[in-house]
Every structure is written in C-alpha cells, then in structure tokens.
Amino acid sequence: MALKLERARTLVDNLAGERVRWLQTRDGLVDGHRRLLGDSLLAAGFLTYLGPVELVARASIVNQWSVDLETQEVPFTGRFSLTAFFYEPNVLIRWHENGLPPDEFSAENATILMQSARTAWIVDPQEEAQRWLLEELGSEVTLVDFDEEICESTVLETFHRHVPLVVENVNQRNVHELDDVFVLQEVASSNCGKCREGKRAHVVFLVSREPLPLPGAIVKRVNQLSFVLGADGLETKMLGLLVGSENPSLEERKVAQQEAILRNKQTLADLEEQILRLLNESQTPLLEDEELYRVLESSRVTFATVSSDLVQAEQARQEIEASREVYRPCAARAALLFLVLGELRRINALYRYSLGWYKGLFLVSLERSGRVQQVAERKRRIDEYHTYNVFRNVCRGLFDYDRKLFAFYMCIRLLFAEEAMSAREYHFLVNGARTVDRTEQMENPCRGWLTEAHWDQLTDLDRLPGFHGIVESFAELPEDWHRWYLSPVAERTPLPATWEVNLKMFQKYLIVRCLRMDRIENCIEQFTREQLGAKFVHVAATSSLTDAFRESSPHTPVLLLLRGASNPERSVGRLRRRAHPSTMDGFECISMAEGCLESFVALLKHCIAKESWLYVASCHLSERFLKQLPRVVAFLRQVNPNSKFRLWLDSEPHVALPASVLESCIKLAYEEPKGIKHHMGSLYEDLAEERFKKASVTLKQTETTYKRLLFSLAFLHGLLLERNNFLQLGWLEPVHFVANDFGLAESLLVYGLEKLPVKKVNDPRIQRGKARSVDAILEDDFHGLGLTGDVQEEQQHDSTPWQFIKGAILEMCYGAQIGPDWDRRIYDTYVEELFQPRLLALPTGSPSTHGWFRLPRDGTYQTYVDFIAGQLPDRDGIEVFGQHENANIKYLASRSGYMLQMLARLAAVAAVAPTHPQQQRQTGQDSGRQAISDLLSTLPVYLSLESALRIVGSGANTRTPISDAMLAEVRSYNSLLARVRLDVNCALQTLSGATDDPSGRWTRLIDALHQNSVPEGWRQGGEGLERRTSLADWVLQLRESVQYFRRWTETGQLPAEIVLGRFTNPARFLNAVLQHYANVNHVPFAEVRWSFTMFATPKPLERIPIEEGFIAWGLLLENGSWDWEKQTLAVPDILETMCPMPPIAFRPTRMAKEEEESASCTPSHFLCPLFHGSRRGEDSYVLAIPLAVGEGQDAKGWTRYNTALLLKA
Asked: Which residue ranges does the record assign to the Dynein heavy chain AAA lid domain (predicted)?
C-alpha cells in the first residue's frame, strides 16, 4: 500500500507538471482554431494573388487585408507568417540548409511554390532558388534547358513517371513556345488516373533569370514568383560571411545553438506525445503501469533539464546575435553595393554580376583590408577597402562614360543609406523641372541671354527648400548672374550675392543644371571626388587588355564588350606577340558574322592542342553561337590549367548572350582610343616598322613624299573620326572608319607613287610624231594632269599623282563612305587643306596655312611614332577641327545629358518615393491618373476638315496646290491628336486594371508622363514640334500649332505670318507655293527657283501676296550669328548656340538651274542648309539658302562650323 501511495503521489506530481504544459497547448489550439478562418483567408490570398507581387507591394496588400478582416471582426494572427501556417520550423531550417536565401520573402515564395496548384514561374536572377529547388526535390527530377531542342518523348516520359519537370533558361526569345509544354502536360493529364482523382501528378517548374512580359494565355496558367534577393536577404548573407571571417567560432556557436534549441524542443514534443499515447493505450491501472511510471519520472527530469538548456540556449543566442550585430553596418553596406551592381544592367544589358562572384570579392576584401583589434577601426577599413575594391573590379567592365556614372551613383546610394541626401534635390538633378504654369510664372528679366527653357528650370527650382527667391535674384542682379553664366568653369565660380554661402555643393550643382548643362559631368566628377576620394574618379588605367590577360586562364574566356565601331582584334594580336614572342604564329581569328559554328569548334580544338590564342569576333551576329556559349565554357574546364591557350570573345549587347557566361567570364569594356593622337599612334602601330621601311626602300625617289602623305592620311583618319564628338555639328551621319581603310590607303599610296608618277614634261599626248598605246593613255589618266591655276603650275615641278591620290585613294578609302552631301562638303574642305602640292614644299615642321596641322621632320619610322606620342596633344583643341567653342559646349552637354538619362533609369529614384508601401503604390496610380487627366484637359480639339473642304471646295478646278498642302497639314495634326488620345486612354485602362500590358508599352508611356517627357511614338507623329522639349512644352507647341491652322480651316485665309516650323512638312508647302506661281504665270515648274531677301528689321512693313511668295518667320541659325546691320554672318559669342534670324522673303523666280548654282556658289556667300526641327538629317532637310559670309571668316570656315538654319515651331 505504501508503494502505491508513493507512486500515486509521484504520479500526481508528474502529471501536474504535464497539466501545465497541456493547458498551454490546449489554449494554443483553441486560439489557433479561433483564428483559423482569418489565417486561412490570408493564406489563400497569398497562394492565389501574391506570387508575382514584389516585397513592398506584398506587405502593403497584406496590411490592407488585415484592415479588412478587422473591419469584418474576423480573428486572425496579427503577424501572419505564411511559412509558419503550413510548415514546422525544422522545415524552414532544412530549406536554408539546401540553399534557400535566409529572408522572409524567399521563405514565402518557397511556400507558395510548394503549395500552389498552378505551374510555378520562378524569376531567379542568381539561380539560388533553382539550386534550392533541385536539392529539395532530390534525384527524382528532370532538368531541361529551354534554349535547346527538347525531345517531346523526354517530356512525356517525365510526366508518365510523375517526376517533376524543371524547365530552365526561359527567356524572351522562347517564352512563346511554352504553349507546347502545356499541351503535352494536358495530354499526359487526360490519360492519368491520379489527375482524374484530383491529385497534382504532373508538376512543372519554369525558371527564368529576369522578369518577362508574358502572353495573357500563359499568365492564367502560371503562378509567378520573384526570388530576386532583397536587401534583407543580402544583408543576412553578407553578415554570415563577415562574422564567419572575423570570428569563425561565433558563427559555429550560432549554428550549434540553433540545432540545440530545435533538438530540445523536439525532445519535449516527443515526450509529451509518448505520455499521451501511454495514457490513451494503457490497459492496466495507472498505479500498476510500470512503463508509464518510468516515462513520467523520466519526463520530469528531462523537462527540467531541457527547460534549463532552452533558457541557457536562448540567452546564448541573444549574446551571439548581439555580437553579430556589431558588424551589421558593414554587411548592410556590402548588400547595398551588390544591389547597385544589379541595377547597372539597366544601363547596359552586358553589365551583369553573379552573387557567387561578389561573395568571393567580399571575402577578398575582408582578407586584404587590414585586421586591427579595435572593432570601430576594423569596420571602417572593411567599408573603405571593399567599396573601392568593388569599384575597381567593376570599372574594368564598364565603358568610359559609365565609370563616372557608376562612381557617382554608388556615392548617391551610400548617402541615401546614411540619410545625408535630399530626395527632392536629387530628383531635380536627374529629371529637371516639372510642368511649369507659365501663366503664373514671373517674367524673365534676362531675355537677352536666358532662354525660356532655362527660366522654366529656375522657376521650378525656386519651389525647393533653400532656393526660395532665386528667380527674384536674377531680376536684382542680372549682370552678376550673366558673368557667372559665362564662366568657363561655372561649378567652381562663386555664385552672386549670398547664394555661394547659403548653398551646399550639391545644391549649387542644381543651379548649374538649370543654366549650364555642359558642366554637369564635371559636377558629377567633382562631387564624387569630394565624397569618396580622387581614386574613384581617375580610373582610366583600370581597363587594359594586359590586365585582363593577367587575370585570365585557359578555363575562363575574356569577353570584350564593344560599343560603336571598335575592333580590338589587332590589339589582342599585338598583345599575343608581346606575351609569347617565341611563337609568333599562335593567334587565330574567326568571325561569327559567317555563322559557321562547326568551323569554330574545329578551330577551338586546334588552338587548344597548339596552345594558341583564339579570337572570336562579332559574337552578337550569331544567335546560335551565343546559345552554345555555356557549353563552350564548360568544355574549357577540361583544358590544362598551365596551357598558354586563351579564348577571346568580342560582342555588342544582345538579348541572347547567356547570363551565366556574362557573370562567369572576365569582362572588359573595350573602346577605341579617343583623340587624333591616339588614332594616329594606333594606325602607325598597325602599320609596323617593317612595312614602313619596305615602302621607303621601294620609293627611293619619292620617300619624303610618301612619309608626308602617309602622316597626312593618318591625321585625316583621326580628324574625321574625332569630329563625331560634335554630333550634328560634326556630321549629319557619324562616320565609322577602321584601320583597314588606312591600310588600303597606304597600299594605294605606295602603288601610286611607284607606278603613276607625273612626268615633269609637257603633256605627252600632245607630242607629235609618236604613237600612243591605249595602256599608256589610261595610265596617264591617273597622273594628275589637267590641273588648272596655281596647282597646275606647281604640278609641273612635282611628280606626285595628286589626281590619283584625291580621286582614287581618298575617295575609295574615305570619301565614298560619307553619304550626305553636306558632310561631303566638310570632307572636301579638309582634303583640300591637307592634300595639296604646297604640303610637300613646306619646310620641315611648318604648319599649314590655318595653323592646325603640323608635319614632323622627315626621318625614320620611330621619328614619326615619337612625334605622335610626344608632340601631339592628348586632347584635341577645337581649332583643329575648325570649329567654334560652342560645338565643344554642345558635345559636353550631350555627355551630361547621357549621364542624367542613365541615372533616371536606375533605381535610386526609389529612395525618393514615399516610404510607406501603401502610400507608394497608391501615389503612383493616382499620379498616373492625374497626369493623364491633365494631359487630356490641355489637348486641343480637332481641326475641322469638313469646314476647310467647304471653303476651298472639293473639285480639282477650285482647289490650288497651296490649299492641298494646307489640307494635308490639317489631316496630319488630326491624326496626331487621335494617336495621343487613343494612347492615353489605353494607358488609363491599364492603370485601372481593365487591360493587361504584356509588352510594357503603356507602362513606358505612363513613366514618360511621370517624367514630363514626350513618348517616342508621339514624336514621330509631330515632326513640326521640338523633339527635345518637355511634355508640357510639347503640348503647348501642339496647341499653338493647331490654333495656327484653325483660322484657315474656319476662314480659308492664310496666316499673316508664315511660320514654316509649324508645318509638319514644310517642303510640301514650299513646293505648293512654287507650283502655284508656275500655274499663275504659266511657266514650267522645273524652271521656278527661290530667291531670298533678308530684312533688316524684325517686323517688316512689306507684305507679299502668296502668288508672289511669302515672308518666313521663326528661323534659327545654329552655330553662327547674324549681323543685322551688315546683313552678314558673324562669329557667335560663347554659349550663343542659337541665333534668331530676321524675316526672310521667299520669292519664286524663273531661273535656270545653271543660273541658280552660279548665283549661290560665290565666295562671298555660304550655302546654308535649312532643316526642319532640331535634329538634322537628310529626311529633315528642306532647302539651302545662300547667306553672305561677312568679315569673320570665309565660306570654308562656315562649312567647318557646319552652320545651319533650323525651323522653329
């Protein structure tokens, strides 16, 4: 009895402890059951709707659902976790061990992926989700590459075996072929018993590296999941690497404590389950059940031990976490830098970097940053070293402009992270002014030098904190501001009054952005230097072929990223000869332009066997080759690591370039050297001393002539290429000459000097008594005979075949590649200056007549190479091109504009958005609707075509060519208005969710409206409107242009002032006036020409009836000025890029074509082309107007200026 009493007492005590735990469990189950409905609704919403939604928007939607549930008084878990709803904690730990990123967003996506009934579409930039999925599924899975040919039987066999099918590398090129996979899935499901029972038997996972616009049919079939690693997940990863490197035992203790906590909790759960099982299954009285007694006794002891261990483990975990938190700021910066790298692909698709590469780079930074005992100093060193290490390694694969851009953007993101940058100020720097209401705008007090666009920028800047009163200061201090405006380095010149003291450096740059766009690049560079240091600015030496070769191996290809007409093949060949001079023939080349993949494979095996270098050019021209590049890289891993073999690839951006190759190879952004000096040096290096000596020996009599002409050819080559920098002030169409053009010219020069010298006697064809063969006569055609004037006199003492040089060599190698006639005129001016008999008569080292070309002394090959390297400037002066300084200002402004355009693409503007997710999403939709509403309210109404037809008549006898031209203008503007209204209505339906936007067209249109820019499609329809203006100004111009023609549609009377810029096709109107003149005066249309008269006053009193012509207003002179008093061209002032022209009388005149040409081609006049709009081109060319040249310079000087007239709307 005593034993039973003792057991009873023990049993009661042990069960009393269990009772506490069971009551807690019961309360938890009851509470969970009470919240089950609300939690189930949230889980169902997650699985159904939130897969494709990004992190911020997902949190916003869940918060809104929670508010709705509270309103309906439906209980739910306050901090709802989708993963905890479906899985135990040990499942999540297993997922992390298998490679799932350690952030809540990835865990939610993994849960949706495992629980969703629809096919999962996984967006996985770093392939971490795919690796986790393959580990989770185990060996029973079929993996196929969708870029390769997939056998139908393989897919069907996978479905029949009920094995998951993972389809990787789904991309924009093959996404439309997914229907075939779904058809096979449906066929297999229709014949499957498990599917008929409602079980999920045929599981398909689709994996892509980037988000793709999906067709509507596919969107309904898939559940899109974005595994883009966010800041939290990246920070956790970087923190683990950092702590593992700094304190490995701490990270090991963290893992051990997590395992111990999980193991102890599982032990308690097992004991509780065993006790409940015994109580339920026991057939003997409780006091006599020995097993139950032992289990309860063991449970009490174990519970006490485990509880104590859990408390200690929790305390240890908190201590470990506190120790790890010390390094979190460093991990946060490392994570931020990787996010910056991920956003670079928005600038160029070739700028891609893998997380694996970045983690290795981070570990290298930790190892080399210098260890110290003080934690604060250690953290500072890690931050500084790793930031520069990232910058230095990434810059090698960036183009020149993008390096400065990357440094500045990285600096801005770091300042945003430290809350040291104003979002509004940064937004203004990138995007400029918003819409300005000119009805409420203060009047421009400096109209003489401050344009309307500049004043709009200042007006909007005045709204920012710290800038209030800036517009009034221009009225108070106009001369001071004008002096600052004309400063060569405005960003360093003190601002007038107290603005220099009151504004910070970045704020001062906003004023520079308003008035001096050409200095923004310097502002960006200076700001980066100030914030990060000079080493983040001077990075030109980081990208060299030699550096890439030193880091390369036989296993890793070197990918040369190309832009424009760059051709690094010769440079790589020279590098091969320098690296391995003993084997001069170890360099092979193949171009993928021919698309022969089999030839590449054979040559690759040959080069590997011979340890040669293989250069593959133009990879972007063969999509088939690009698809096979991952296999090529895998094949290279079998090569002997000590081999001299190297694989070099060059490519321009292409969608088929595999992301895995871009992330694993050595990338080097290759650009041809800039400047005439570097072009000439490269040409002479390609020519080689041996070839130079051979030509000199061959041309003993004309050796000096050969050397001088060769130097002039190299100078012309560089001169023509570098003129591209001036954009439309350089050429209408950019020229792209390569080294082969120079090589051909050199070969022809040797041939001409050797075979076709001009005889220093009278023309042998006029000698009597001598028979002449046909070959001899043909040969004399290239002897430069038939020249006139001074050149003919000089030619009598010069054996140089100038006609062959200009008419054959220069024309074949250079002139024939220049298309537009206006470009050809510039080219002819350069040729005439550089290639003339006087060139050979100049003393050694003398300049040409204009002083912008200097010959070295005659000497050896090395003499010319040394002269180019030592005497020519690194940067070409503007006078070399015969250009005005304004052309250089416009070039610098275009570079700054490119930088701001790229910054607008990047995600730093996300820091400007509202911080609350719901506010951010709602604000974006509301602002989009508001922008569309504002646009629709300001659009003009259609022009009345019916009214115009009633006035002019519909018969051929009542209408004139002018009325037909005006009717065509009405139709053009009505078509443009209809296009705008249709587009904005479609965008509005996209915002409301009524229609999908798989192509992203309407999203891009809404983004353009947000940025106050004109969508591209509208610009194509409004040729008469300014292309580079803001949306607000574009709409204003549209309203004014429509109103300009409205009077004619209502009254039939032409406008009093003919503004050609308001016509969508001014050439059509001009031809109509000529035709009308020809009809009235009964003269042939082919003999009617224009005569022009410049007025000396901006408002002439003369009126010209349309039958006799008209007066044109609104013409602008670009890269020139007009002397109203002398009625001639004048050299413009600095920053005077546009000059308004006086009204010009256009009068039709009967004149033969020969008379017109003789009248316009006089030395006292410059034939100035007239273009429609600000963008020059053959399609926008209208006509040419002769302008008096004046005393500033001759017609050739204005030709080098490339001065032109533009029509202003």
From this structure: 796-887
